[in-house]
Amino acid sequence: MIQSSKWLWEQERCMHTIFFFSPNPFSYVKKPLATPPPSYICFRCGKPGHYIKNCPTNGDSNFQSVRRLKKSTGIPRSFMVEVEDPNTKGAMLTPTGRYAIPIINAEAYARGKKEKHPFLPEEPSSSSLSSAPDYPIPEELLCFICKEIMADAVIIPCCGNSFCDECIRTTLLDSEEHTCPACHQEDVSPDTLVANKFLRQGLAWKRP
Fold first, then answer.
1. Side-chain half-sphere of 65: how many Cα atoms within 13 Å?
2. Is 16 part of any domain?
3. Which residue in 56, 98, 104, 156 is a FRET match for 200, CA 20 to 30 A apart?
4. Could you tell me the CATH number of the domain that includes residue 183?
């Protein structure tokens, strides 16, 4: 009788424990924040500042959703060129929520370089191409000093900007304080310049 009473008491205690301490599954459901992080991009309109369920275009039946973009994961920021239009050919989504394309692609687009399809007609002659409009070259491919496409591109360690090797070395040596022309930091030695191999490879077509 005593053992039976003890067993009943243990069962009742266990039931109370389960009732009071059993986790409520609804308490662990994460609620979306009112304001998303700066890097979040709405999958419907392609703009930051709101979640897709709060997108201003939700009630617009004529709105066409932007295409999903590949993320630039693994590509260094210095190897990318920012663009404004998400529909730019080769555009990717960066961790900061901006759009960018690889520098090598940018210089190819700037030249209007296209891969010929075997079934397409012959390319027009050079005389007809001479009247075609020039494509603008992205500023990121131009030297900060000479304003031309960089030759033997190097990176300066103080601010991470790239210049022509000759331009930046001459500028640093001509400056009494060895001042960087971009961020104006002093005592920058030309020996600390690092070759920008990615840019050199991408812009090799520029020099004969």
1. 11
2. no
3. 98
4. 3.30.40.10
Cβ count within 10 A of residue 182 = 16
Distance set, CA 177 to CA 28, 147, 167 (Å): 60, 23, 16
DSSP output for 192-206 = G-EE-HHHHHHTGGG
pLDDT in tens, 145-154: 988 888 888 9
What's the total number of domains in the chain?
1
Does any domain span residue 36? Answer: no
- Residue 52 belongs to some domain of the structure: no
Q: How far apart are CA 162 and CA 39, in angstroms?
A: 26
CB atoms within 10 A of CB 65: 13
Q: Both tokens of residue 147? A: 């304003």
Instruction: Give the domain range for residue 170.
Output: 142-208
Q: Does residue 175 sit within a domain?
A: yes
Measured in whole angstroms, the distance separating CA 98 from the mean position of its chain's CA atoms is 6
Q: In the structure encoding, which two tokens stand for residue 182, read together?
A: 């971009």
Question: What are the tens digits of pLDDT across the range 8-26?
Answer: 667 666 655 544 444 555 5
